[in-house]
Amino acid sequence: MAGVGGVVGGVILDESVLLASQQLQHPDSSSSSHSSSNCAFFQPDAHFLLRKLRHSNIPTGISYGPGLEAHKVSILKEVATQYSIHCFILDASSIDDTTREVELAWRNIGGCILYLVSNKKRDIYPKLSKCGWLITILNVEGSSACENSSMVYINKLQELPLTICHINRKAIGNSVVTVGYIMKPSREEDFAKRGAFPMYPTQDGLMFVPLTFELPLSPQLQEVDVVLHKATDEIISIDLNSSLQSSNTITYSRGMQELQRYMEHHLDLCVIDPLNYIYPVLDRLKIQQILLGLEDLKTRGCRAIRGPNFLKVDDFNQAGLIQSLSETKLALPSIVKPQVACGVADSHSMAIVFRVEDFKELTVPLPAIIQEYVDHSSTLYKFYVLGEKVYHAVKNSTPNADTLMKLSGT
């Protein structure tokens, strides 16, 4: 097992940093589910941390002493099962037994074990330090995340991912690129469970660390080389009356505004994607106008491609709508979408229209884009471009027009 000077190859969270001293009252405490019961006994940020560690590619465990109450042990074991992590009994009188148990559970650990413990259990620090574990102490009042020759100190559970990142960068040096990422929890979980955000350095020299608006942003960004964000998750509102070529038309959350200011003052920071690249794809009218350029492409040996025919409307009852549809070569059925493409709650509120009179009953937000419905056999190909590399994913979609018309009884 590597010594303290190496990267973090395993994390053990002592029960003292996870369990609350008394049952906490949560808004959903009336629920009878096991998960709600667990939350009632856990520190507010405990599940936040466990979600981050679950898919970090760093073995993670929970430890507790032999004298812990049975109901608390039961909760810890249930949570360990929920997050697919280990549970260890840590007896201060027989530390060697615990370390052997950990080594058996986590064979070939690629680094040192970081042990996070409350500052109320000082008696165990020296014994664990002697066996090569990196002791990290939580709840040191009046101190910030820092370290000395043998111990690390943090104030909040949320600081641990960044602390692991700092330790690993210090151990590895410039041979690793650190990517800080921020997006809504459901999106992060979807990526993480597929192994996209490992905290442990990969063979390709990449290491990921979650950023959070709940902590000061500047110290976090100083630890990363690249910022990967989903800024559209942080949009509060979009003003379509202004040009979407400027960030002035978009109101972001306070945290995203802080990140935006930091990026503007640190132009050497690599950002994926720069915010000005995002603005055009927020507006479906702008997207359609960009797709018009496809008709001008003359690629030898390839079939000509075009974007779907479209029409922008500000009122579904506007005079001359039928004539406008005809002039833009829009036949029915057509698909109707809000002009705002993403970032707000109703941006994906859409409708498929089979008859002209159906436009009068639509509740799709205005302004809207009426778009040619193109048969695609219930399959969409979604393309992603990273530098010179192009990737694609196959997505399920709506049926062809004839099937839709049969289903609608038209």
TrEMBL record:
GO biological process: inositol trisphosphate metabolic process
Limits of the Inositol-tetrakisphosphate 1-kinase N-terminal domain: 179-278
GO terms, molecular function: ATP binding; inositol-1,3,4-trisphosphate 5-kinase activity; inositol-1,3,4-trisphosphate 6-kinase activity; inositol-3,4,5,6-tetrakisphosphate 1-kinase activity; magnesium ion binding
UniProt keyword terms in alphabetical order: ATP-binding, Kinase, Magnesium, Metal-binding, Nucleotide-binding, Transferase
Tagged with keyword Acetylation: no
Cofactor: Mg(2+)
Pfam families: Ins134_P3_kin (PF05770), Ins134_P3_kin_N (PF17927)
Coiled coil: none
Inositol 1,3,4-trisphosphate 5/6-kinase ATP-grasp domain residues: 307-400
InterPro entries: Inositol_tetrakis-P_1-kinase, InsP(3)kin_ATP-grasp, ITPK1_N
Self-association and partners: Monomer.
Similarity field: Belongs to the ITPK1 family.
Protein known as: Uncharacterized protein
Source organism: Prunus persica (Peach)
